[in-house]
């Protein structure tokens, strides 16, 4: 007994000693572990947040960065410092209230119940291994941020995210309880990786898990933040699937088993065991409880560590449950009796190393030593770790705990904060190399602090520290930075469009330049890089900023319609302007703003020049935007266009205008010409000339008082349009309204123009005397009948009454309105006649006629086109033919009486034509058929219209020469054909014409007239290529102009014969045109021979630049004046003094004399060198050479200043006539004397200027950096509070200055 007690005492004493040693060891090895909040991501390396834990001793040790034994004695200095209360005396406290008052107040306040806030805040933690989005470079952005925004919208809770040092995700959720719980469920399911598990309970227990209306299941899912899937009633499975986080799975599984156990009809036993003994019952990795369940056959449900419950539920057979309960109680009693505890202090930041990933370290210690390690919860501030177990095992467990806690260390590397991003590298490349080698080391950069914190295994941290220290040393030795202050309004100009300016500076000087964004409103620009590059970049940026301060802005008013034209397609035109004025920034307004203001910015002179240049462009555009419309008969549009658009293209190019023609299917005849007024008129005259040449078109001017023009045009042009339509489509052009011009132009065929002129003058006379207008209505289908064929009916009414009748056009809204214009009496009579006609048309009658059934098909063919034409022409008459196969001859006509009669008469004429119809064959070789048809069959269509016949062309001949058998009723005829007559025409050459005999004969003559004829014209072979022209343009033009085909023989034939093929009436014109072109070419050949005269002149090469002149001005003038070509020798030519002149002989001689005169003048010149002090050269030359040009122009001399690096920088050469050279030299010497006086004076002033003192700087260096205002016994020395920042406007606000809102500890809000 005594020996056992003694042994027990010795063991206790040993454990106490070990505990004291451990505490001392912790103090030595872990002096301080600081983790600072940061609200931003620095170049892809995430800063983490925690709270610094400082003891009074460690704070005093580390306040100056030295340990006690390293720090020099500073007792006197400390005593000299004022205390906090002396420096900042507190305000007097409020006097204590009398007791009675206090009692009353207490009584009053006792009745008030505190109101609890409905808003709660919870923090959820997602470990790194369970995070769904692990890309630390995209923290705060990407999918994770989108998920958080969606959760906030869906639940109404507020979320803030941060990352812990272990890369775990902390989410602070604020809101009402219900919203927080819903948000928690969403967070777990969408931000945490999902695990799954199954739990088997009897099928009959499933309904109790679901609950009434599913309420129990919803509550369980919300409480455990899991998704629980219960099999459907018809599914025989008893497995319930749970998905969610590991912690949630354990909780849900536990709750489901509890529900099942409650409903289980077998024995259920609940045993209350202190939570601290649960690890011994479950065993390491749940080995013990698993063995018990296997041995007893009972189900044992131990609540997981995260569930704060002491109750262990055992279910099964009674004997099994009793056996399991006994085993559990035995373990409990044994551990309660024998286990002891020791408590040790371990830094809060080291707890995670003791716990290990997913609690594996705790399980490992329990498995190895049988000791349970109890860690305080993460939301607790306690640092005490309790070890519970057998006394002889506690020492080993304690060693394991300290080993795990001490397996990680914290260190730091000093590095200026501006170098951090260079250490990190682009997209974290530099750090990635280190972290790949040492993945367990965490590297933390804190913004604004000149250090880098490292955390990880000791050996790894040391290696990483040495690597980063080497990088820092290298960067400090070869990098520098500078800061310059530039007004923010100039920042975007320093950057340039698309960053062109700043990128050029960066690339040129190999530096990085940080220009603050507009929202910062900072004027500080930071330059970092190579020291020399930094200084050069700083100098260039300051020069740019200085230049911009001298800039001006000018607004130009340019109509927005011109903006697109000035900019050009893809901006090529404005690029030319910007290249011409590179220092000027040109800003166009957004098209949506519809603004006319174009802003120019740059140096004053350049802005003025650019402004004048752009105004000139706009003036040209205004001049070029003149537009004129030319009415051209529709049938002549294709001739104006020409073959392949050759005619219209030529007119456009030669007149420099834009010509728009109406679409082919449009009824418009107007051709619109746009450009300069003179060019538009020229193009208009050329187009009218083409029309006049193609047809018998004339133009007549009629003088009508301008006051009558509007009344003659009529409402919407109806009156003048009726005259134009009646007179065969002539064009009548009135001058612009308000011009006061009386001239009205009528253009068209001669006869029609004369008729229109008479009608227009008669109408004008009526308007001058007395004009009357009346309106009446008739159905639109009656209009054609009222007008009659070719306008015959309406002409009779007009001739008998003298009134003009105007029918509506397709564009008019009221299609029934008919207008009658004329004298009152004429209008009355015409109105009466028309009303009678309309009344008779309204009187519907029905009539019949007989038509042979063989002709019925003609009327109803092509979907009844003939019947539709009859209805349109005769007031909508309805014609009904009998059904096919009825053999009836009766045709019924229904409509107005007059219309029916007219339609009946017309049908009889058609039947007569059909009865008298014959078929005539016209033999024309098939090779000419395409030519006869014309483009799109236009020529054949014209013949069918003119002669009222049908023309059918044969099928093409089979190229094999075989004829297919004629088929009858779908079967080939087996009759033996007789040999064909060799003199008989081929079927492919026979054109069949159907119609009246006399009309068919006329059509045959018309077809034969269209057969092309070929003639040959003799043209010298050497002229063939000129006739063909460049890329065939010459011959193509002639073919289009004369409507013939011209065939030039191949060059290898050396033939002088050119073939012309076309219509007989076109050949003569084409032949004459070709011969005329030959005469022109022969004349050009003779002229070319005369122009090829050459002569040479010998001129010393030193005079060549003077003869050429500035930018070639002199030589260009000689070339233009004498119409010659002057060629100077190339650099490699042997005869460098030979100048060649080519042109007419007399002009070449005159040009030679002009050059010789210049040479004579140059030979009479002299050159003299004078000495001018190089310090005055710049002033003599002037800004952009303005001064030197003035001297050279005034004295007619040439001045040459020495180049940089010349042997004598003071020598200036003056060249010119002797007397002018002397005058120029005197003037230059006078200028030198005047400017030198200023130079000497400036140098004298500089000499007296005090140089910058270096003593002050040296004194500052000796004094060292200022510590600022220091006090003793401040509140933050005794607490964990942070000392106030003297530079912070938040801690020390200025009076009247706004204070920035305090930033959230989780960083800026992103959603």
Structure description:
This protein is 45% helix and 19% strand. A hairpin with a 5-residue loop joins β16 and β17. α6 packs antiparallel against α7. The chain is flat, with a radius of gyration of 55 Å. The strands form 17 sheets. A 3-stranded antiparallel beta sheet has the order 3-5-4, covered by helices on one side. Strands 6-8-7 form a 3-stranded antiparallel beta sheet, covered by helices on one side. A 3-stranded antiparallel beta sheet has the order 9-11-10, sandwiched between helices. The longest helix has 31 residues, at 1218-1248. With 1311 residues, it is of the alpha+beta class.
Q: Give the count of helical stretches.
A: 49
Oligomerization state: single chain
> What structural category do the secondary elements indicate?
alpha+beta
Distance between the amino and carboxyl termini: 72 Å
Q: What share of residues is helical?
A: 40-55%
- Sequence stretches where pLDDT stays below 50 over 5 or more residues: 25-76, 93-116, 961-979, 1250-1266, 1299-1311
Say how many strands there are.
49
What is the alpha-carbon Rg in Å? 55 Å
Mean pLDDT: 76
Strand share of the residues? 15-25%
Question: Could you give a short account of the major beta sheet?
Answer: 3 strands, antiparallel
- Identify the overall geometry: flat
GO cellular component, one term: high-density lipoprotein particle
Organism: Salarias fasciatus
Subcellular location: Cytoplasm; Nucleus
Main location: cytoplasm
């Amino acid at each position: 007994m005594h020996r056992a007690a003694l042994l027990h005492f010795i063991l206790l004493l040993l454990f106490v000693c070990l505990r004291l040693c451990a505490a001392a060891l912790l103090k030595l090895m872990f002096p301080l572990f600081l983790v600072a909040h940061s609200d931003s991501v620095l170049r892809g390396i995430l800063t983490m947040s925690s709270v610094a834990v400082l003891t009074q001793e460690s704070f005093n040790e580390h306040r100056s960065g030295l340990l006690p034994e390293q720090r020099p004695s500073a007792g006197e200095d400390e005593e000299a410092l004022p205390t906090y209360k002396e420096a900042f005396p507190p305000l007097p406290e409020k006097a204590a209230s009398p007791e009675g008052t206090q009692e009353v107040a207490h009584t009053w306040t006792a009745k008030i119940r505190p109101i609890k806030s409905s808003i709660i805040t919870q923090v959820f933690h997602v470990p790194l291994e369970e995070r769904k989005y692990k890309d630390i470079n995209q923290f705060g952005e990407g999918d994770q941020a989108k998920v958080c925004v969606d959760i906030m919208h869906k639940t109404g809770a507020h979320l803030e995210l941060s990352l812990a040092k272990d890369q775990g995700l902390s989410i602070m959720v604020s809101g009402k309880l219900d919203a927080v719980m819903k948000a928690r469920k969403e967070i777990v399911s969408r931000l945490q990786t999902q695990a799954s598990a199954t739990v088997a309970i009897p099928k009959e227990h499933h309904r109790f898990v679901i609950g009434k209306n599913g309420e129990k299941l919803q509550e369980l899912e919300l409480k455990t933040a899991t998704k629980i899937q219960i099999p459907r009633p018809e599914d025989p499975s008893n497995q319930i699937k749970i998905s969610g986080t590991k912690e949630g799975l354990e909780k849900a599984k536990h709750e489901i088993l509890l529900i099942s156990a409650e409903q289980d009809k077998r024995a259920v036993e609940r045993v209350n065991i202190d939570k601290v003994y649960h690890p011994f019952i479950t065993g390491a990795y749940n080995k013990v409880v698993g063995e018990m369940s296997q041995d007893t056959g009972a189900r044992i449900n131990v609540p997981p560590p995260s569930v704060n419950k002491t109750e262990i539920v055992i279910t099964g057979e009674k004997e099994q449950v009793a056996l399991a309960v006994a085993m559990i109680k035995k373990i409990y009693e044994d551990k309660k009796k024998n286990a002891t505890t020791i408590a040790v202090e371990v830094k809060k930041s080291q707890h995670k190393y003791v716990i290990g990933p997913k609690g594996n370290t705790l399980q490992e210690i329990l498995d190895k030593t049988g000791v349970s390690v109890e860690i305080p919860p993460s939301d607790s501030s306690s640092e005490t770790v309790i070890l519970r177990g057998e006394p002889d095992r506690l020492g080993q467990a304690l060693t394991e705990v300290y080993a795990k806690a001490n397996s990680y260390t914290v260190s730091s590397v000093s590095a200026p904060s501006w170098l951090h991003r260079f250490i990190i590298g682009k997209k974290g490349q530099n750090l990635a190399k280190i972290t790949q080698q040492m993945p367990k080391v965490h590297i933390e950069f804190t913004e604004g602090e000149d250090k880098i914190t490292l955390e990880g295994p000791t050996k790894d941290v040391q290696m990483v520290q040495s690597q980063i220290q080497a990088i820092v040393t290298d960067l400090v030795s070869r990098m520098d930075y500078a800061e310059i202050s530039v007004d923010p309004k100039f920042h975007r100009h320093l950057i340039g469009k698309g960053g062109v300016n700043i990128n050029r500076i960066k690339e040129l000087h190999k530096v990085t330049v940080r220009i603050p964004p507009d929202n910062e409103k900072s004027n500080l620009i930071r330059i970092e890089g190579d020291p020399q590059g930094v200084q050069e970049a700083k100098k260039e940026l300051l020069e740019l900023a200085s230049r911009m301060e001298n800039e001006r802005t000018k607004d130009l008013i340019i109509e927005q319609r011109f903006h697109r034209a000035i900019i050009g397609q893809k901006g090529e035109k404005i690029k030319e302007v910007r290249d011409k004025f590179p220092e000027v920034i040109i800003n166009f307004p957004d098209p949506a703003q519809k603004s006319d203001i174009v802003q120019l910015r740059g140096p004053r002179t350049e802005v003025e020049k650019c402004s004048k240049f752009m105004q000139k462009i706009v003036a040209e555009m205004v001049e070029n935007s003149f537009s004129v419309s030319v009415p051209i008969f529709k049938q002549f549009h294709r001739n104006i266009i020409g073959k392949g658009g050759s005619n219209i293209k030529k007119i456009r190019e030669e007149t420099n205008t834009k010509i728009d023609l109406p679409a082919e299917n449009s009824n418009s005849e107007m051709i619109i010409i746009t450009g300069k007024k003179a060019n538009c008129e020229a193009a208009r005259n050329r187009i009218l000339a083409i029309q006049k040449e193609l047809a018998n078109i004339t133009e007549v001017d009629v003088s009508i008082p301008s006051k009558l023009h509007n009344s003659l045009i009529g409402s919407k042009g109806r009156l003048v349009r009726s005259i134009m339509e009646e007179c065969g489509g002539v064009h009548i052009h009135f001058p612009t309204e308000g011009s006061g011009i009386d001239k009205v132009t009528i253009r068209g065929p001669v006869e029609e123009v004369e008729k229109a002129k008479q009608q227009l003058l008669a109408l004008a006379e009526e308007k001058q005397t007395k004009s009357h207008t009346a309106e009446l209505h008739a159905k639109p289908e009656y209009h054609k009948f009222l007008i009659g064929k070719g306008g015959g009916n309406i002409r009779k009414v007009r001739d008998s009454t003298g009134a003009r009748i105007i029918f509506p056009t397709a564009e008019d809204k009221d299609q029934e309105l008919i207008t009658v214009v004329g004298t009152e009496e004429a209008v009355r009579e015409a109105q009466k006649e028309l009303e009678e006609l309309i009344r008779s048309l309204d009187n519907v009658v029905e009539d019949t006629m007989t038509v042979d059934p063989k002709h019925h098909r003609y009327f109803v063919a092509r979907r009844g086109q003939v019947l539709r034409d009859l209805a349109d022409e005769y007031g909508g008459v309805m014609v009904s033919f009998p059904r096919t196969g009825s053999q009836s001859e009766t045709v019924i006509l229904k409509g107005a009486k007059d219309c029916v009669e007219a339609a009946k008469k017309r049908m009889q004429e058609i039947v007569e034509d059909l009865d008298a119809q014959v078929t005539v064959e016209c033999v024309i070789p098939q090779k000419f058929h395409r030519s006869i048809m014309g483009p799109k069959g236009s020529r054949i269509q014209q013949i069918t219209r003119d002669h009222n016949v049908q023309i059918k062309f044969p099928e093409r001949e089979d190229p094999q020469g075989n004829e297919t058998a004629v088929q009858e009723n779908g079967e080939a005829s087996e009759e033996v054909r007789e040999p064909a007559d060799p003199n008989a025409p081929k079927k492919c050459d026979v054109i069949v014409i159907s119609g009246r005999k006399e009309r068919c004969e006329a059509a045959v003559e018309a077809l034969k007239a269209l057969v092309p004829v070929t003639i040959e014209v003799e043209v010298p072979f050497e002229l063939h290529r000129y006739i063909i022209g460049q890329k065939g343009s010459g011959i193509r033009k002639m073919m289009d102009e004369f409507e013939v085909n011209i065939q030039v023989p191949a060059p290898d034939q050396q033939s002088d014969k050119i073939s012309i093929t076309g219509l007989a009436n076109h050949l003569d014109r084409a032949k004459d045109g070709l011969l005329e072109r030959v005469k022109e070419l022969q004349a050009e050949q003779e002229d070319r021979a005369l122009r090829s005269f050459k002569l040479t002149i010998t001129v010393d090469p030193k005079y060549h630049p003077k003869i050429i002149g500035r930018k070639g001005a002199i030589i260009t003038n000689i070339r233009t004046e004498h119409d010659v070509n002057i060629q100077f020798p190339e650099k490699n030519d042997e005869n460098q003094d030979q100048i060649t002149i080519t042109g007419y002989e007399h002009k070449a001689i005159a040009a030679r004399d002009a050059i010789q005169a210049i040479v004579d003048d140059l030979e009479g010149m002299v050159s003299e060198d004078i000495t001018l002090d190089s310090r005055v050269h710049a002033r003599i030359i002037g800004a952009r050479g303005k001064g030197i040009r003035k001297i050279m122009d005034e004295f007619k001399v040439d001045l040459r200043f020495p180049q940089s690096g010349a042997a004598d920088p003071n020598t200036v050469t003056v060249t010119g006539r002797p007397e002018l050279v002397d005058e120029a030299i005197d003037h230059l010497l006078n200028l030198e004397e005047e400017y030198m006086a200023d130079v000497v004076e400036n140098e004298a002033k500089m000499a007296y200027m005090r140089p910058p003192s270096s003593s002050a700087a040296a004194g500052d260096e000796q004094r060292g950096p200022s510590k600022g205002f220091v006090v003793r016994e401040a509140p933050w020395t005794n607490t964990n509070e942070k000392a106030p920042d003297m530079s912070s406007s938040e801690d020390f606000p200025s009076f009247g200055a706004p204070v920035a809102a305090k930033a959230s500890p989780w960083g800026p809000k992103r959603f």
